Amino acid sequence: SKVPPIILNNGVEMPQLGFGVWQVPDDEAEKAVATALEAGYRSIDTAAIYGNEEGTGKAVAAAGLPREELFVTTKLWNADQGYDATLRAFDTSLAKLGLDYVDLYLIHWPLPSKDTYVDTYKAFEKIHADGRARAIGVSNFLPEHLDRLTSETNIIPAVNQIELHPHLQQHASREKHAELGIATEAWSPLGQGKGLLEVPAIIAIAQKHGRTPAQVVLRWHVQLGNVVIPKSVTPSRIKENIDVYGFELDPEDLGAISALNEDRRLGPDPATFDVV
Ligand code: NAD
Question: Which domain of life is it from (predicted)?
């Protein structure tokens, strides 16, 4: 494969770079995912709330790749937290995807105001024990949520998928993940393509390496050890975003990108986000 894997804490291999499909309508997801699979992506990141598990599943089926070469992630939506509701929601996601198992199942948000993520995760442990998710993990969990979860359940999450890009480098979370053996997966790795790709320091590094700003930012994630899931529906960008293995950022480049941290979120704060 084009993308080397990282080894999760349960021994499962996960491609370090995958394809995200947030905000891709179901009827376009099939085409976008097909383009990504053709370009060499083998990991796809969807979620029940994205409303495109069916389109994603259709593209996966149509590609005709051996199932074991693919890595499919989906996420449990907030409204479905709780032990029994989680088991039902997981059945629905699997049916929409047209799969017998997923590679990774994530709790989408901790929802601390509802206080149900521990019970929810116990259902995840059952799903994992039943062989229907090769790995289980969380998303948008703050260090305090990880401490509580790991003290009250048996399986350390394989992954915490969090907002992470050069303007929000998440030092405290990355340290907590390293301490617990949890892989850091970066959502909005390109900062949603907004101002980040126009930052002069990023443009200068791109020019120096004969690469694009998006490739520089993705390469930065890869060298840090993050899993990344850039999203695009544009075929040329889909190809560009996976082509980050033929060059290396030097210490000076890495230092210049580190200096861009502003601890600035584009998305909601997990401590207070409670939309169901
Ligand atoms: P992203 O950082 O991947 O940015 C995507 C946008 O950047 C595109 O829509 C496009 O406008 C631009 N872009 C992409 N490639 C480009 C290129 N080569 N050159 C120039 N511009 C380019 O943002 P995202 O979609 O928010 O995040 C990626 C994935 O992360 C999502 O699709 C989803 O799978 C996941 N995600 C998860 C959560 C969560 O709560 N767990 C939240 C948001 C996103």
Answer: Bacteria
* Local confidence band at 182 (pLDDT 50, 70, 90 cut-offs): very high
Average pLDDT score over the chain: 98
101 is catalytic: no
Q: What is the value of pTM for the model shown?
A: 0.98
**Quick check: CB of 52 below 6 Å from ligand 1?**
no
Q: Which atom of ligand 1 is found nearest the CA of 266?
A: 26
Contact 21, 232 (CB under 8 A): no
Superfamily of domain 5-258: NADP-dependent oxidoreductase domain (3.20.20.100)
Q: What is the pLDDT of residues 58-85, one digit of tens each?
A: 999 999 999 999 999 999 999 999 999 9
Question: Which atom of ligand 1 is nearest to 75's Cα?
Answer: 41
74 touches ligand 1 (CB under 6 Å): no
Q: Is 137 in the pocket of ligand 1 (CB under 6 A)?
A: no
In the chain, where the domains are located: 5-258
ipTM of the assembly? 0.99
* Residue identifier of the C-alpha nearest atom 34 of ligand 1: 20
Residue 167 beta carbon below 6 angstroms from any ligand 1 atom: no
- Please count the other Cβ atoms lying within 10 Å of the Cβ belonging to residue 192: 17
> Cα(first)–Cα(last) distance of the chain, in Å?
38
